[in-house]
Structures are given as structure tokens and as C-alpha cells.
Design goal:
The chain is an all-alpha fold. About 80% of the residues lie in helices and about 0% in strands. The chain has helices at about 5-25, 25-30, 30-35, 40-55, 60-70, 75-90, 95-125, 130-155, 165-180, 205-210, 220-255, 255-285, 290-310, 310-325, 330-340, 345-375, 375-405. Helix 1 packs across helix 8 (about 130-155) and helix 12 packs parallel to helix 14 (about 310-325). The protein starts with 6 loop residues before the first helix and ends in a 16-residue tail after the last helix.
């Protein structure tokens, strides 16, 4: 049951993530404009993206601790204001060095937003925390699909590209003021057991686990490490696509700039469809551990087809399929990790998100370097290699799952879908 009194606060939180969907692909969508404005190249823009990951990596843990101590509102409001500063500052930045400072601040804002919003939603809707948080991914996809359309409109009407930065910045700032005036839910509220993201195990299963031999006990240095590595490979594929898909469309397929930007629209529409599909299939037919293997297999075929068939129509189909098959893998990895190590949810979440932040920090720099010394196709060959690695890890995790939970019934844990 959703509390009506929490809906105004939740509305502001969802608006933030709709804007974040735009924010997340802003630099990649303005690659050509920014390389000229900042007197750099594509590798330089990828370095800006990496600086955002750096800012997030080194503030993620501390922002979560402070959010628990001082409340959600200060961090969510600060995140909106810092993102507004970044969005206004980038198109007006006189130097590349200034843009780097702004990018680090944007990474800090990202960690503030995450550490405040997800707990706030759980506290706002303790009876339906899974449903409340799954909507975040949907709003991110909507924002990310809308931004390229706005850029194309400005391009067709010869409007300064900076306005696609300024409009989200203005809404971020206004929304921060709106949330500052709102009363946030009580931090002492806890989600119910059924909605908390864990899996309820029967007493018989618990007894069986106690009697299990060593081979059937979860092993952190086996499936645990594999799941942490999946926390790196999944976001790596996501960032390669979000950062370099428009460039791939222009340089490899021969699309115009506006046509290549539309690939991001199709990618995000596929991601949005995936959110609703996952909510349905995970309730009735498929376990999360199976999805983390099935989805990478689908994305591998799509990446291969993207490189094999050099046509606009094939690129549109592949972009949609990639968006569909990448979405939710990270969050399902967290769910599976929680099943294996149910007594260490906070710790293992920290491990996986650290791997994710490392991906956000390292991959933009590495792919920028790769593109500087090779062609754009090499970046997507890297995606295929990472994808194959992810499949191998998922195969082992599925094997270990069948050993640790040999008679596990079909369960339907609530899935918390995230943006990274």
C-alpha cells in the first residue's frame, strides 16, 4: 500500500531521475560540440566522463553514511543544485580544466542523489519498496530517450546547443527548491520483509542449508567474486553504448549526426521495455540468476550483428535489443548476491557498487585511448570481449546456484532496478 502523503515527495524524486537520464548521456550526446568548444578530442570528452566516475567512486560510501546520520533531504537537495551547476557550467566553461572540476562535482552529485533517493523511497513506501524503486529505472530511460530528440530539435532550428544543458539545469534547481520545502518520511521506517529485496526462505529450506555439506555452502571467493566482477562487466557495456553509440553510427555506418543520436532513443526505449518485462517475468516464470545469463547472451548476439550488418535499419534494431538486454543486469546481480550471502547485504552491495564505480571511472579513459589509436569498431569489439567474459561468469554463478540451492522453489524477490 502506498502512502498518499508520500506521493508529493516521490514525485520530486522521480523528476530528479528523469533529469538524470538526460544528465547521464549529456556529454556523449554533445561530443562534436564539446570537442570544438573545449578544444579537445573524443578522448578528452571520455576523460570528463571518467572524472564523473572518479567523483562518484570516492564519495559513494561516505555520502551513504552521512545520509543515514543527517537525513535524506540535505543530500538530495544538494545533488540537484550541484547537477544544475554542472549543466550550466559545461557549455560556458572557458577551459578544459574547468570542465574537469565540474565533472568531478557532477560525480559527487551522483553519489549524493543515489545515497539519498533510494532510502527515501523505501522509507516513503515501506509496504511496496520494490515497486517504488523499480520506477526509477523507467524514469531514467524516459529522460535518456527524450534528450536526443531535444538536441535534434535545437540543431534543426539553429539554436545554441547549450540550451539542452540549461533547460534540465533550471528544472533541477526548481525541483531542489520544491523538495527542500517538502516533509520527508521518517528514517526509522523499515520495509517489510516481503518487500525488502530479499528472498524469504522456508524453515525447511533453512534446516536443509544447516545440514548441507561444504560444497553446497556459498563461497565468497567463488560465486561472490564472480558476482562482483559482473558488477564491473555489466556497467562497462552500458557505458560503452551510452558514450560511443552515436560516434559508431557516424563513423562506422555513415549516419548523419541527428540519425546517430536517434540510436540512443531506440536504445533507451528498449531499456524501458525491459523494465516492465522484468517485473512480469520475475514474478512468475524466471529467477534473477537465470536472467543474468540470458540477457548477456542476447546482448552478445546484438553486438555481433551491429558490427556485421553495416546499415541504419540493423543499427536501430540492434540498439533496441542492446538496450533491452543490458537493462537491469546490475540490479539482478545484486539480488542474486543477496540470495547467496543474505546476512551480509550491506557489505556485498558495497563491493558490487565499488566495482561499478571503477567501471565508470576506467572504461571512458580506456575506450578514449583505444579510439585515439584505432577505429570505433575496436571499442565495440571490446564490448564483445567483455560480454563473453560476463557470460562465462554467469554460467559459473548459475552452476553454483544449482549446487547451493538444489531444491529452491520459484520465488519472487522484489527487484530494485538502478541507473548504473
Amino acid at each position: 500500500m502506498m502512502k498518499r502523503s508520500s506521493i508529493p515527495v516521490a514525485t520530486g524524486l522521480y523528476v530528479n531521475y528523469l533529469l538524470f537520464g538526460m544528465f547521464n548521456i549529456m556529454l556523449a550526446s554533445h561530443m562534436s560540440f564539446l570537442t570544438e568548444h573545449l578544444h579537445t578530442d573524443q578522448a578528452g570528452i571520455s576523460l570528463l566522463v571518467s572524472a564523473m566516475g572518479f567523483g562518484r567512486l570516492f564519495t559513494l560510501y561516505i555520502s551513504g553514511v552521512l545520509s543515514d546520520r543527517y537525513g535524506r533531504k540535505p543530500f538530495i537537495v544538494a545533488a540537484g543544485l550541484l547537477m544544475a551547476v554542472f549543466l550550466v557550467g559545461i557549455p560556458l566553461s572557458p577551459t578544459f580544466e574547468m570542465a574537469m572540476v565540474l565533472a568531478v562535482l557532477a560525480g559527487v552529485a551522483n553519489s549524493f542523489l543515489d545515497s539519498g533517493t533510494y532510502p527515501a523511497l523505501i522509507e516513503a513506501f515501506p509496504q511496496s519498496s520494490g515497486s517504488a524503486t523499480v520506477l526509477v529505472r523507467g524514469f531514467i530511460s524516459i529522460g535518456a530517450a527524450f534528450l536526443p530528440l531535444m538536441i535534434i530539435f535545437f540543431m534543426n532550428h539553429d539554436i545554441f546547443y547549450g540550451f539542452s544543458f540549461f533547460i534540465p539545469a533550471l528544472i533541477f534547481a526548481l525541483n531542489a527548491v520544491y523538495l527542500f520545502r517538502m516533509k520527508f518520511p521518517d528514517m526509522r521506517v523499515q520495509p517489510t520483509k516481503e518487500q525488502s529485496g530479499g528472498t524469504t526462505v522456508s524453515s525447511a529450506e533453512q534446516t536443509g542449508n544447516l545440514k548441507a555439506d561444504d560444497a553446497s555452502k556459498p563461497r565468497f571467493w567463488q560465486e561472490g567474486v564472480c558476482l562482483i566482477l559482473l558488477g564491473f562487466t555489466g556497467p562497462t557495456l552500458l557505458y560503452i553504448v551510452q558514450l560511443w553509440l552515436p560516434t559508431f553510427g557516424q563513423q562506422f555506418i555513415g549516419m548523419t549526426e541527428s540519425e546517430s543520436l536517434r540510436l540512443l532513443v531506440y536504445y533507451n526505449m528498449g531499456s524501458l521495455v525491459s523494465v516492465f518485462v522484468l517485473v512480469i517475468v520475475l514474478r512468475k516464470w524466471v529467477k534473477p540468476v537465470h536472467i543474468i545469463l540470458i540477457y548477456p547472451c542476447i546482448s552478445l548476439l546484438a553486438f555481433g550483428a551491429l558490427l556485421l550488418f553495416k546499415s541504419g535499419a540493423a543499427a536501430i534494431i540492434c540498439a533496441s535489443v542492446i538496450g533491452f538486454s543490458i537493462s537491469g543486469v546490475l540490479q539482478l546481480t545484486l539480488t542474486v548476491m543477496s540470495e547467496f550471502f543474505s546476512q551480509r547485504k550491506g557489505q556485498i552491495t558495497g563491493f558490487i557498487y565499488t566495482a561499478t564505480s571503477l567501471s565508470y571511472t576506467l572504461i571512458p579513459v580506456f575506450t578514449g585511448f583505444l579510439l585515439k589509436h584505432s577505429q570505433i569498431s575496436s571499442v565495440f569489439m571490446l564490448a564483445i570481449i567483455v560480454n563473453v567474459l560476463g557470460i562465462g561468469l554467469a554460467v559459473f554463478v548459475n552452476f553454483r546456484y544449482s549446487v547451493v540451492f538444489p531444491a529452491k522453489r520459484e520465488l519472487s524477490p522484489q527487484i530494485v532496478l538502478d541507473t548504473k
